[in-house]
Amino acid sequence: LSFSKIEGRHGTYALIDKGENRDREIRKPRPSIRAQLKADKAKTAPKKAAAKTKNHDMEV
């Protein structure tokens, strides 16, 4: 695998040799940051106490 810039074209191109394994991924897939943050939030979220109910009974 080699990287090259081609004249007249923008960007960098990956050139694969004829004998090289083409099934291999060039870039490693990165884990999702959103999924990671969601898991951390679910793990560290404090449990909310039940809301207090008002007692409207009249005392005599």
If you had to describe this structure to a student in words, what would you say it looks like?
The chain has 60 residues and is α+β, with helices and mostly antiparallel strands. The protein has one helix at residues 33-44, and strands at residues 2-4, 13-15. The model has no long low-confidence stretch (mean pLDDT 80). The protein has a two-stranded antiparallel ribbon with strand order 1-2. Strand 1 and strand 2 (13-15) form a beta hairpin. The termini are far apart. It is rod-shaped. Residues 44-53 have a biased composition (Basic residues). Residues 18-28 have a biased composition (Basic and acidic residues). Residues 18-60 are annotated as: Disordered.
Topology:
Layout: E1 2-4, E2 13-15, H1 33-44
Antiparallel strand pairs: 1-2
Output the number of helix runs. Answer: 1
Mean pLDDT: 80
Largest sheet: spatial strand order:
1-2
Compute the separation of the termini in Å: 89 Å
Cα Rg: 29 Å
Coarse shape: rod-shaped
Helical amount: 10-25%
Low-confidence blocks of residues: none
Number of strands: 2
Beta-strand portion reads 5-15%
- What is the H/E order? EEH
Structural class: alpha+beta
For the biggest sheet, the summary is:
2 strands, antiparallel
Summarize the entry for a quick read.
The protein has one helix and two strands.
